[in-house]
Amino acid sequence: MGTVQCTVLKRDAEGLEKPPYPGELGERIFQHVSHEGWTQWLERLVLIINENGLSTADPSAIDLIEQHMLGFLFGEGDLGDVPAGFSPRKK
Which residues pair with 13 in a beta bridge? Predict the structure, then answer.
């Protein structure tokens, strides 16, 4: 595991141990997203799944998740931000 120029953090950071996702997208993530950046994505993913009522067993939901992933990790497309209307619960 080496250092990558992380597209999420906008700085050099410790990379991932292996591609965290299958295929070309996983390899791209491995080369350009740090461990910390990926952790931030996983936290955002939980919000996206919960706020949109998505099921990871639904192929159309996977497509939507990938669009959000590209937006969050690489700034591509219009998705990836905090879901509209989301407000964190007060503890």
Answer: 4
How many Cα atoms sit within 13 Å of 69 on the Cβ side?
A: 17
The pTM of the full predicted model, rounded to 2 decimals, is 0.83
Name every residue whose Cβ is closer than 8 Å to that of residue 4 and which is 6 or more positions away in sequence.
Answer: 12, 13, 14, 15, 31, 32, 33, 34
CA distance 60 to 15: 30
- Residue 15 bridge partners (DSSP): 34
Question: What are the tokens at 26?
Answer: 């996983």
Query: Measured between alpha carbons, how far is 5 from 12 in angstroms, rounded to an integer?
Result: 4
Listed as ranges, residues in the chain with pLDDT below 70 are 1, 80-91
pLDDT score of 70: 94
pLDDT tens digit sequence for 32-44 = 999 999 999 999 9
